[in-house]
Amino acid sequence: MAHGEETRTLLNWDTLEVGQKLPSFSYVLTQEMMDDFRKGVMDPEAAFPTISHKVDVNAYHMAYHDDGSVNARCTFSCYNPPAAGKRITVQAWIADKYARRGKNYIVTEAVSVDEDGRLLDRVITHELKQPSEVGKKWQ
């Protein structure tokens, strides 16, 4: 594939399948990443820097491209704080899709697990896939 050529698929909401797995990825959480997150949220004790990795939408954007989205709702459940120096693996999938008031939404779900098999977090995000619809109620 030529340099710069798009490798992701254009989102087709009609054919998107609930349960479809998104690309998984992993990274090593460094102390610097933890320190940067804690500085960013102004909490020296903040325990879940995995939040800053946007694991659900990163996995989605590894597979698809689209016209953008608006975060309609997000639930983040934290189970075990991650430790610096541990490899974290993220698995994500399309958990649901629905239409409401003529607007299309997708729901992605992702879980982060460390190299010891500990469940770190689960994030579920609902996204409006027609961002141009947002401002219409004020027109």
Outline the structure in words.
It contains 2 helices and 7 strands; from the N terminus they run E-E-H-H-E-E-E-E-E. By secondary structure, it is mainly beta. The chain has one domain (18-138): Hotdog Thioesterase (Thiol Ester Dehydrase, Chain A, Roll), CATH 3.10.129.
Instruction: Give the low-pLDDT segments.
Output: none
- What CATH architecture would you give? Roll
Shape assignment: globular
Strand percentage lies at: 35-45%
Q: How many strands?
A: 7
Please give the structural blueprint.
Elements lengths: L8 E2 L10 E8 L2 H10 L14 H9 E2 L4 E9 L8 E14 L2 E12 L4 E10 L11
Parallel strand pairs: 1-3
Antiparallel strand pairs: 2-5, 4-7, 5-6, 6-7
Supply database-style keywords.
Thiol Ester Dehydrase, Chain A; globular; about 15% helix; two-stranded parallel ribbon; mainly beta; about 140 residues
Describe what is shown at a glance.
14% of the residues lie in helices and 41% in strands. With 139 residues, it is mainly beta.
